[in-house]
TrEMBL record:
Region of interest (Disordered), residue spans: 77-101
UniProt cross-references to InterPro entries, sorted A to Z: WRKY_dom, WRKY_dom_sf, WRKY_plant
Organism superkingdom: Eukaryota
Highest classification ranks of the organism: Eukaryota, Viridiplantae, Streptophyta, Embryophyta, Tracheophyta
Composition skew (Basic and acidic residues), residue ranges: 85-97
Keyword Transcription attributed: yes
Gene3D superfamilies (UniProt xref): WRKY domain
Name this polypeptide is given: WRKY domain-containing protein
Pfam families per the UniProt record, alphabetical: WRKY
Location(s) in or outside the cell: Nucleus
Residues of the WRKY domain: 108-176
Alphabetical UniProt keywords: DNA-binding, Nucleus, Transcription, Transcription regulation
Length: 271
DNA sequence: CCCATTTGACCCGA
DNA sequence: TCGGGTCAAATGGG
């Protein structure tokens, strides 16, 4: 409504676009790796592009005068970050020289649990000296398409409304053709009563319930604090420049559309 | 009935 | 041996 909200919206848009750029660049990187002829320089360039995007994400994150909704703490490679500075722009160039075929790893702290991929939970562990359990997700298409991407989600002790989401490996699946690239704005700062119809994605569901398990009757504030909003702006944005990019041919390998159905069930809101 | 989640067991590296 | 990560049978929901 006001400038603050507008800024937040703009930032989320930029962040979303950066993430899309990251995904697309990752796909290019994978394509290049498949045709390993004389594309060495191109691969190197792609890696630099990825590093640049990651740096930009970090910089954008540090530029947060208002309410933080998503911040990137560590980027790729060995999780070196989250130590000295939190994403200033000290080296905005080639700090990411050799990524190689190693699985990329980066961590995001966010109140948002969704991303553009469909995940399937395969485990949950109580980690030593931590309050909240860690959940393990793999790509839904791990076995159908051999996608190696996984992610780990853990609620932050310092800020229980936030989740530490660690992405490990890049997606090699073709879900992008099925799932539109829209990032919903899910905040835990807003309260929705139980009577409210929450079409929550599977991730949210699982994380939600584990929150409840850790309440132990301690009457803290109510959880289930999520709201889906202000994604109409994104919808329009993604309409024109995403159809061009992702609306192209898909390898019809058993993309049954069910996997993405839960993740994108909120889409009806934005149309 | 199919698919995702749950959850204890199992595996493996430090 | 311990702890983090993964497996897989049981369970539940659509």
């Amino acid at each position: 409504m006001d400038i603050a909200c507008n800024n937040k919206t703009i930032k989320l848009k930029i962040m979303d676009q950066l993430l899309q750029g990251h995904e697309m660049t990752t796909k290019v990187q994978q394509l290049l790796s498949q045709h390993g002829s004389d594309l060495g320089p191109a691969k190197d360039l792609v890696e630099k592009i990825l590093g640049s995007i990651n740096d930009t994400i970090s910089s954008l994150d540090s530029f947060e005068p208002i309410s933080p909704s998503a911040l990137v703490t560590a980027v790729e490679g060995s999780q070196n970050a989250s130590c000295d500075n939190d994403g200033k722009l000290e080296d905005s160039g080639d700090s990411h020289k050799k990524l190689g075929p190693k699985s990329e790893t980066w961590t995001v702290e966010s109140t948002l649990l969704e991303d553009t991929f469909s995940w399937r939970k395969y485990g949950q562990k109580q980690i030593l000296n931590t309050k909240f359990p860690r959940s393990y997700f793999r790509c839904t298409h791990k076995y159908t398409q051999g996608c190696k991407a996984t992610k780990q989600v853990q609620k932050l002790e310092s800020e229980p409304r936030m989740f530490s989401i660690t992405y490990i490996g890049n997606h090699t699946c073709n879900t992008n053709e099925v799932t539109p690239k829209i990032k919903p704005c899910i905040h835990h700062d807003e309260i929705i009563t139980d009577s409210e119809e929450i079409q929550s994605p599977s991730l949210m569901t699982s994380m939600k319930e584990e929150e409840e398990n850790h309440h132990h009757g301690s009457s803290t504030e109510s959880d289930l604090q999520l709201v889906w909003q202000e994604m109409l702006v994104f919808e329009e944005e993604h309409h024109h420049h995403h159809e061009a990019v992702y609306g192209c041919g898909e390898t019809s390998t058993s993309i049954n559309g069910l996997d993405s159905a839960d993740l994108w069930s909120w889409q009806q809101f934005s149309v």
